[in-house]
Each structure stands twice: as C-alpha cells, then as structure tokens.
Design brief:
6 helices, Transcriptional regulator with XRE-family HTH domain, globular, mainly alpha
Length: 81
C-alpha cells in the first residue's frame, strides 16, 4: 500500500524545490490536470493513477519509485540492518 501522506509531502517538496514560489496552478497546468486535483495529491487525500504517476515523475525528473514508493525502500533498508 502506498502512503498517501508521504507521497503528498514529497510532491509538495518537489514543487517547491523546482523553482522558488512555483504554484500548484503552474504545475497542474504543465501536467494537464486541474489544480484541485494536484492539491489533493499534495494533501495526501488522493493518489494519482499509475499513468499519471509516470507523467509526474517525468515532470520532476525523478524515478517513479523515488516519489511514490520511497517509504517502502526505506523500510526494507531498515529491516535489513
């Protein structure tokens, strides 16, 4: 299961790191989605579809796994230690 809250935090962080003061409206327009939908992703209320995950990852120049599955990778590393 994907942790929506962690994903939302990562999406918000990526948006803010992309350029200072990049708005949800600007990113949503670039992604071809409504800003309310992107906001719901950032708040951890919803998760994007697998196809949209790919589009978002490409926009931010990050692997899908790094944005949407990093919590699982970190958990596995801790369990292996």
């Amino acid at each position: 299961m994907i942790d929506r809250v962690s994903v939302g935090k990562r999406l918000k962080e990526l948006r803010k790191r992309r350029r200072k003061n990049t708005t949800i409206k600007e990113v949503a327009k670039a992604l071809g989605i409504h800003e309310n939908l992107l906001s719901s992703y950032e708040k951890g209320e919803r998760l994007p579809s697998p196809d949209r995950m790919i589009v978002i990852a490409e926009y931010y120049g990050q692997p899908v796994e790094a944005i949407f599955f990093a919590y699982r990778i970190n958990k596995l590393i801790k369990e292996a230690e």
